[in-house]
Amino acid sequence: MAGNCVEVAFNKPKVELHVHLDGTIRPETILDVAKKRGMALPTDSAEDLARLCMLCKPATLTEFLCKFHHFMHVIAGDREAIKRVAYEFVETKAKEGVLYVEVRYSPHLLANTEVDPIPWSQKEGDLTPDEVVDLVNRGLRAGENTFRIKARSILCCMRHMPNWSMEVVELCKKYRHSGVVAIDLAGDESLNCEAHPGHRKAFEEAVRSGVHRTVHAGEVGPASVVKEAVEVLKAERIGHGYRTLEDRTLYEQLLKKNMHFEVCPMSSKLTGACDPDFTKHPLIRFKEDKANYSLNTDDPLIFNTTLDVDYSITQKYMNFTEKEFKRLNINAAKSSFLPEKEKKDLLNRLFDAYGMKKPALKGGTENSRDIQLIMSTHSE
Ligand SMILES: [Zn+2]
């Protein structure tokens, strides 16, 4: 413990790859924006609003989604608010010791025109999904300049809105040089891509145009959703992926491919995705098998968490050590959607911070076996 600081599980630079911008908004900001826009909220206390937005015990998907109705209508459609939320997000992550973060959101869910249907019962305005992306990019960039960490974004397709997906991939292409690094598919996993070809077409276009891909799969849905994500949507990373373990062949294939799993411990408990007993969490199996995964907050506003809470859970209930924290963060950096040169820089910064010798880089980033070799000789 240092000075007045609370002891944290892993007090070294971290990489976070799975966090939703609209699930990280500060209650104070929601109140502030509502006041400016003359919108009534059920409370004017940040604490009460936070309590309203948070899940305290394992819930259903419907209960989880309900939480967003408390505040999304306040932020959506407001240019200044969207930029501010992105800026404040970077500040929060810098405070949590994150060196590099990929934050995701649906541009359509923050727009109020050229989106069908207009979300959150908003009146039609003049903020398009395209401009939303530009605003988030600007907010993130301003945050990067002030707080000296790197933030990139991932644009989400929503499973129940296949008609938005083509535009999402076009926005990924348009803004690929201004901070957008990938496409994602989020939402209700019971809606597969066979019944909703809009997503498949968008992801095919992503492959064609070199846009990176991650997919929420195997969180609540069965292993077949993971299989579809990998085989049909050509996902390079899996959001959650816990239920991959139910299909042994698939799991072994993904281990062999070094597929990255974006694991969110607290989220997986409160959404009811996993057994609430953390000592039975699928992550333990991932760890034993030296799988490629990261630790992430997902929606810290809804789960009332910080990144440290997720690290602490794994330390307390799953015997995670400093060595494992280093290994998983290096794997997260390697599985990030940064261009190769920036990825190498990020890895070098982690090696420095972790007191590990830099591997001789030959061409691309080194493979996980090299990393394991380095880990075994350089970290205690
Ligand atoms: Zn998520």
Automatic annotation (TrEMBL):
It catalyses: adenosine + H2O + H(+) = inosine + NH4(+); 2'-deoxyadenosine + H2O + H(+) = 2'-deoxyinosine + NH4(+). It is found in: Cell junction; Cell membrane; Cytoplasmic vesicle lumen; Lysosome. GO terms for molecular function: adenosine deaminase activity; metal ion binding. Keywords: Cell junction, Cell membrane, Cytoplasm, Cytoplasmic vesicle, Hydrolase, Lysosome, Membrane, Metal-binding, Nucleotide metabolism, Zinc. GO terms for biological process: adenosine catabolic process; hypoxanthine salvage; inosine biosynthetic process; negative regulation of adenosine receptor signaling pathway; nucleotide metabolic process; purine ribonucleoside monophosphate biosynthetic process; T cell activation. InterPro entries: A/AMP_deam_AS, A_deaminase, A_deaminase_dom, Ado/ade_deaminase, Metal_Hydrolase. Its main location: other. Its EC number is 3.5.4.4. Residues 13-351 form the Adenosine deaminase domain. CDD domains: ADA. It is a peripheral membrane protein. The keyword NAD does not apply. GO terms for cellular component: anchoring junction; cytoplasmic vesicle lumen; cytosol; external side of plasma membrane; lysosome. It is an enzyme of class 3 (hydrolase). Belongs to the metallo-dependent hydrolases superfamily. Adenosine and AMP deaminases family. NCBIfam families: aden_deam. This is Adenosine deaminase. It comes from Anguilla anguilla (European freshwater eel).
